[in-house]
Amino acid sequence: MKNTLLALSAAIGALCTALPAHAVTLESATLNGNLLDSSFSTPSLIALDLTMENHASLRFTFTVDAGDIAAGSAAFNSVLRDVSGLGFGSLTIDYDRVSLIIPPGSLRASTVDGDLLESNHFAGATVTEFYFGNPFEEDGVSDWVIGFAGLNAGDRFTLGIATTPAVPEPDDWAMMLAGLGMIALSAARRIGR
User: What pLDDT band is residue 173 in, cutting at 50, 70 and 90?
Assistant: First the structure.
C-alpha cells in the first residue's frame, strides 16, 4: 500500500512539473463599454476576443511571473469585431515595456461583404473584423509574439488598441444628402397642403 501511494504521488508530481508553469496574468482591462472574452488564453498564449460596441479605446495591463520571464515570450492572437454598424476606419496598436513581433500575413481583416483581406490592403474597404495572429488555428498563419526581455517577475506591461469608425465615401454622403433632401421636400409639400 505504501509503495502504491509513493508511486501515485510521484506520478502526480511528474504530471505537475510537466504542465506549463507560467501564465501571463491579465490584471486589468479598460473596455469603455466594449466586451472581452479571454477564455481562449492558455499559459503560453494571450488570446483576446473583443466585441466593439463603440470606438472607444481599449487598454489592457498584464503582469508577468518568473515562468513567463524564463520562457522569454508569449504568443498573442485576437479577434476584434465591430458590432456598432460603423465598421473600422483605422486601427492603432500601442504597447510598452515589451517587444511585439508581427509575422508577415498575420494581420488580416474581414469586410462587410465577407472578403478576407491581408495587411496593407485595407484601404477603401469597410472592415468589420480584424484578426491578429492565428485565432482560428489555420495552417500557415502565425501568432504574434510578445517578448519579455528586460522585464522581471511581477513587472507589468500594457497593450492598447484604438479604432476609428469608417468614414462614408463621397458618393455615400451624396446619397445620404439626396435622401434627406427628398424627406425635406416631402415634408414641405405636406405642410403646404
Answer: low
Place of cell 445620404: 176
CA distances from 141 to 15, 32, 73, 184 (A): 31, 31, 18, 52
Q: Which three cell numbers stand for residue 189?
A: 409639400
Answer whether 95's CB lies under 8 Å from 65's CB: no
pTM metric for this prediction: 0.75
Provide φ and ψ at 3, rounded to 5°. Answer: -65, -35
What is the per-residue DSSP string for 54-99?
A: S---EEEEEE--HHHHHH-EEEEEEEEEE-SSS-EEEEEEEEESSE
HSE-CB at 127 with a 13 A cutoff on CA atoms is: 26
- Ramachandran class of 85: left when φ > 0, alpha when ψ lies in -120 to 50, beta otherwise: left
Residue whose cell numbers read 489555420: 138
Longest dimension (CA), the chain: 101
Q: Using the predicted structure, report yes or no on whether residue 40 has a pLDDT greater than 80.
A: yes
What the block records as the C-alpha cell of 152 is: 522581471
Nearest alpha-carbon partner for 91 in 80, 101, 100, 102: 80
Answer whether residue 61 shows pLDDT above 80: yes
Rounded to 5 degrees, φ, ψ at 6 are -65, -45
Q: In this structure, what C-alpha cell is assigned to residue 30?
A: 479598460
The arithmetic mean of pLDDT across residues 32-41, rounded, is 95
The predicted-structure confidence for 125-148, as pLDDT tens digits, reads as follows 789 999 999 999 999 999 999 999
